[in-house]
Amino acid sequence: xxxxxxxxxxxxxxxxxxxxxxxxxxxxxxxxxxxxxxxxxxxxxxxxxxxxxxxxxxxxxxxxxxxxxxxxxxxxxxxxxxxxxxxxxxxxxxxxxxxxxxxxxxxxxxxxxxxxxxxxxxxxxxxxxxxxxxxxxxxxxxxxxxx
Length: 147
Prior knowledge:
The chain is α+β, with helices and mostly antiparallel strands. The longest helix is centred in the last third of the chain and has 28 residues, at 88-115. β2 and β3 (134-142) form a beta hairpin. It is globular and about 35 Å long. The protein has helices at residues 30-38, 40-50, 55-63, 69-82, 88-115, and strands at 3-10, 123-131, 134-142. It starts with a strand and ends in a 5-residue tail after the last strand. A three-stranded antiparallel β-sheet has the order 1-2-3, with no helix packed on it.
């Protein structure tokens, strides 16, 4: 009779990492830069959806909260989910003083996360199946979980 054991490990490290690009590196990706300047509210709504906010809560963050607070909430959540160094006070200050630059930095960060397959949320699942007579080990890379 075969038995199966599933061992699930998460590769999230305890150390915080820096942003993948600087706050004032807006020209690193001109499409993000232009969208952030000319259609910032649309970009903020998209970022809120990317970090797991539903359509209603994303719209509420943008429409109902006074400016820097809604954007700061999105930045705080993104930073927390991805293990990026910083703090709430710094996020509010950054958004209040340099909102378009912060928005572009967050969009570049999401692009970086997608290109690297969400490394901080990547999980590895080892499936070990044993049957009388032999052992077989299979590894399966589970895609990042979206909330």
